[in-house]
Amino acid sequence: MNEMTPMKQDRKQTFTGHQALILEEKLIFEIGSADKSGVDLEPVPAVNTRLGDCMAPSKPNLPGLSEPEALRHFVRLSQKNHSIDAGLYPLGSCTMKHNPRLNEKMARLPGFSDIHPLQPVSTVQGALELMDELAHWLKTLTNMPAVALSPKAGAHGELCGMMAIRAAIEARGELETRRRVLVPESAHGTNPATAALLGFKVDEIPANADGRVDLAAFKDKLGDDVAAIMLTNPNTCGLFERDIIEIADALHEAGGYFYCDGANFNAIVGRVRPGDLGIDAMHINLHKTFSTPHGGGGPGSGPTVLSDRLEAFAPLPYVVAGENGFDLIELEAQSANQPFGRMVAFHGQMGMFVRALSYMKSHGSDGLRQVAEDAVLNANYVLASLQDVMTAPFAGPCMHEALFDDGFLKGTGIDTLDFAKAMIDEGYHPMTMYFPLVVHGAMLIEPTETESRDTLDLFIATLRDLVRSANAGETERFTNAPELAPRRRLDETRAARQPILRWQAAEETAQAAE
Amino acid sequence: MRYLPLTPTDRGAMLSRIGVNTIDDLFIDVPEAARLDGPINLPPHQSEMQVERDLFAMAAQNKTASTVPFFCGAGAYKHHVPASVDHIIQRSEFLTSYTPYQPEITQGTLQYLFEFQTQVCELTGMPVANASMYDGSTATGEAVLMAHRITRKKRAVISARLHPHYRGVIDNLSDMGGFDVASPADSFNGVEDLIALIDEDTSSVVVQYPDFFGNIMDYSTLAREVQSRGCLLIVVVPEIISLGLLKRPGDMGADIVTGEGQSLGNGLNFGGPYVGLFAAKEKYLRQMPGRLCGETVDADGKRGFVLTLSTREQHIRRDKATSNICTNSGLCSLAFTAHMTLLGGQGLRHLAELNHARAVHLADKLANIDGVEVVTPAFFNEFAIRLPAPAGQIVEALAEKSVLGGVPVSRLMPDSDMDDVLLVAATEANTEADLEIYETALRDVLKGVSA
Predict the structure, then answer these.
(1) Between A and B, how many CB-CB pairs are < 8 A?
(2) Number of domains in chain B
(3) To bridge A186 with a disulfide, which of A345, A438, B325, B450 should be the other Cys (CB 3.0-4.6 Å)?
């Protein structure tokens, strides 16, 4: 335990537990009641039920709230969240950029939000046109001939891309022999998890001193048992893989496929086309590069572009343009290709497609290029403004995110976690911590292009002050942090050792304990 | 460009702080062969108004569910969502936050996830639920993989009455992961044919409730039979409103319950985003996929919530993770929880009764038409009818009359020999007048067919 110094007084205690605008809020189950409802429904007409022997004896044991109570409940909860709208959210690799409200308005047009995925295609021509146009933008921006729109999120897109690769290998009759997938040690955790899900053996490739794939080590690992490489570019250290074309050529020469994790496409959109780099499959997080909201952890959307070597294996469904309008290919029998199967029910995240297309049209070809440039500029500005006081493991320029390690904290008694928690008291959401794994105590800062120079200047000044404080031995500013957030540090060990994953009435809890 | 705060002056000053001359100097690591000379061949930027014009034009070409008598279901249902739900999910603090990795400043998200998990547990009758999955189909695929992990077996027996898209997702995962699936020929009788397919390599039996054809049956006996053979029973609930009125899968003995939560709080959205539900028996907790939110205390002893048991997940376990899932359906689960909170158990029961009443009335009306037969004996808000002509053709003819009359089975199961079977759903969004319009329109269309 760190010794608590009485330098700062405990926050004033109040009768209600509220602290001015920070309002405590109980769970629904503690404030609602079983006989209350915030929805008025028509009376149920007389009916001879047809429920067989399946009718439940009683209503679900869940409380309700009237509308004013429900709104107050959720608004109070919302006020305990940090958000991009309220402040900088520099989570590296997550791309917390502004979410334009035009996109929200467009996604709510009844013509998109109030149509059923299985109503006749003759009645949803505009929806299919939107999907077709989105596909056109994605294919053109990446210079890839095909795109699978249906994957529900980034990791799902990864799965899609790797499934297409697996299907292509199977079609070549090499499924028994090509078992190995090369994954850099700096990769997102989803990459090895995806490869393993498909039965591939994950083989890690080391990074070089530059924070990039060690080309020689990579070439040593190539062989006729290699199915694919899963490489993030720009990589998770925020660096462009300089040797990427050479990697692609050597891999193709050896008969493997190139999967690129497109999580960081926002750094190069409009300036570099992945198809020009020799990539065979890449997912695109619409919730990163194309500004659809993260929503507290989803829903995402992960369309996956495919090269001509994989195009034929794209999953169902997909849209085709014909003489009489658009059609939806939903069944293998309708397809002229060899689709590997189906990723999901229906056609994908339509709500996200509308938002992403609204964003693309707003920016246009010129604006998207500016997006990449400003994202890279902002990250390099942060790197250049902090590298004299914090330690950057790799030389710049970086791409859209700036990576630091914990070298500058050595000897201060403060670690990356403490440093991050102190940022919370200063009004910032911390950067990504302890990722990528290849550097010690990583701090990955991604400002995005939607932050102003003034915002960055204050952020930079704040971090410099925190570094000064750490070096001056003001450890309690870090080890006690956060002190001003709705909650102080939470006991995660307790949460994992004695999991409480749902609310239970006191008597139920007592019974369970017996 | 309205979304970009940097001015040309800013850019110049920032480049000089960095110590380079032009922006191109920051892209020097891009191989020369991949550097573009000019802009990509796509249209230039547009004002809000221009974008609106383009998208309004596309939206206007679609026939929306609220403007016509509407009876499509098959895993996606038209329900009325209270106005306050959409307001809640558009709160900046919910809409524009990320996964709650820093719990001190994301208690809002964490608390609603805990409430969501509690609601899913109560609705399904299961002791643990996760913080949501992409949708019902992917949740079901994950459930099969989980059953394989638990039993260390690799074959799933799947009801022929499971939604064909859900079946497609399982088939694909099984094919890719080296697992087997088996299924009986379709049958409207009991579950004996499922039990007969269980062998020593079978991990699980997957059934849907209500099933793809709308039928409901008590799976208690099936659960015992399945479990006595060392397998898990996975029950898939495609229409969560049904659990306002039906016996809970957990009370029937299900080991894993998956479901589609779209009907609570979420619009049709042409198929997504939706919200997958995933619940299981407590003993299987550590094999569950997806995020879990748990209760704990902070340094002052105050109650708070965190993401927990993450050692199952990909960002810790990498290739040993229970699933590759990272993102869930956060905002859709908030919509679910807000709608469920507004309804309460009593409101949900009422809503479910209203759905059932509309469906029974519609079934009775359609059964009166010559040549139309209702083939689902017991149902909630959706049933199958047999028509005297191909269902796809009838649906198109009904659409001409501005009635969206249902989903032809052949659209999803082309080889099932059910060209004449139509799935018809009715919900609280249908008025009794809608039902009459449907009956009249179908009579007219069928007259045209026989003439």
Answers:
(1) 712
(2) 2
(3) A438
What is the separation, in whole angstroms, between the first and last Cα of chain A?
33
Q: Which residues of A touch B291 (CB under 8 A)?
A: 297
B39 part of a folded domain: no
Query: Is residue B4 a part of any domain in this protein?
Result: no
Mean pLDDT calculated for residue range B39-51? 97
Tell me what pLDDT residue A185 has: 87
Residue A449, Cβ density class (10 Å: 0-12 exposed, 13-18 middle, ≥19 buried)? buried
Mean pLDDT to the nearest integer, A163-173: 97
B197/chain A closest Cα distance in angstroms: 24
- Distance of CA A452 to CAs A374, A462, B11, B205, Å? 10, 16, 10, 55
Report whether B4 contacts A364 (CB < 8 A).
Answer: no
Listed residues B318, B339, B360: the one ending a domain: B339
Q: What CATH number has the domain bearing residue B253? A: 3.40.640.10
Q: CA-based diameter of chain A, in Å?
A: 78
Chain B environment of A104 (Cβ under 8 Å): 90, 95
Q: What is the pLDDT of residue A6?
A: 44
User: For A490, which residue in chain B has the nearest alpha carbon?
Assistant: B298
* Architecture category of domain A103-360 in CATH: 3-Layer(aba) Sandwich (3.40)
Q: Which residue in B360, B336, B378 sits closest to B426, CA to CA?
A: B360
Superfamily grouping for domain A369-494? Aspartate Aminotransferase, domain 1 (3.90.1150.10)
For residues B112 and B243, state if they share a domain: yes
Q: Does position A26 have pLDDT exceeding 50, yes or no?
A: yes
> B139 and B248: one domain?
yes
B321/B419 same-domain check: no
- Distance from A433 to chain B by nearest Cα, in Å? 10
pLDDT (mean) for B106-121 = 98
Which chain B residues are closer than 8 Å to A482 by Cβ? Answer: 104-105
Let me know whether B160 and B231 are in one domain. Answer: yes
B318 and B352 housed in the same domain: no
Residue B175 covered by a domain: yes
**Chain A residues with beta carbon closer than 8 angstroms to that of B414:** 331, 333
pTM value surpassing 0.95: yes
Number of H-type helices and E-type strands within chain B: 15, 13
**B52–A102 CB contact, under 8 Å:** yes
**Domain assignments of chain A as residue spans, ordered by start:** 103-360, 369-494
**pLDDT tens digits for range B147-171:** 999 999 999 999 999 999 999 999 9
The residue range of the domain holding B365 is 65-80+344-450
Copy the structure tokens of residue A205. 């490739």
Give kind and range of the element (H or E) at residue B408: strand B407-408
CATH value at residue B416? 3.90.1150.10
Q: Which residues of A touch B58 (CB under 8 A)?
A: 111-112, 126-127, 129-130
**Residue among A44, A111, A452 whose CB faces B354 most closely:** A44
How many Å apart are CA B354 and CA A410, to the nearest integer?
Answer: 66
Average of pLDDT values for B22-49? Answer: 95
Q: Which helix (H) or strand (E) holds B293?
A: strand B293-297
Distance from CA of B9 to the nearest CA of A (A): 10
**What are the tens digits of pLDDT across the range A382-392?**
999 999 999 99
Nearest chain A residue to B75, by CA: A345
Average pLDDT over residues A193-210: 92
Calculate how close chain A gets to B212, using CA atoms only, in Å. 13
| Interchain pair A82, B13: CB under 8 A | no
Supply the ipTM of this predicted assembly: 0.97
Chain A residues in contact with B82 (beta carbon < 8 A): 38-39, 67
A90-138 pLDDT, tens digit per residue, is 999 999 999 999 999 999 999 999 999 999 999 999 999 999 999 999 9
Tens-digit pLDDT profile for residues A230-241: 999 999 999 999
Confidence of residue A1 (pLDDT cuts 50, 70, 90): very low
Domain limit, last residue, from B286, B319, B339? B339
By C-alpha distance, the chain B residue nearest A325 is B61
B75 with B93, same domain?
Answer: no
The residue count for chain B: 451
Using an 8 Å Cβ cutoff, are A398 and A236 in contact? no
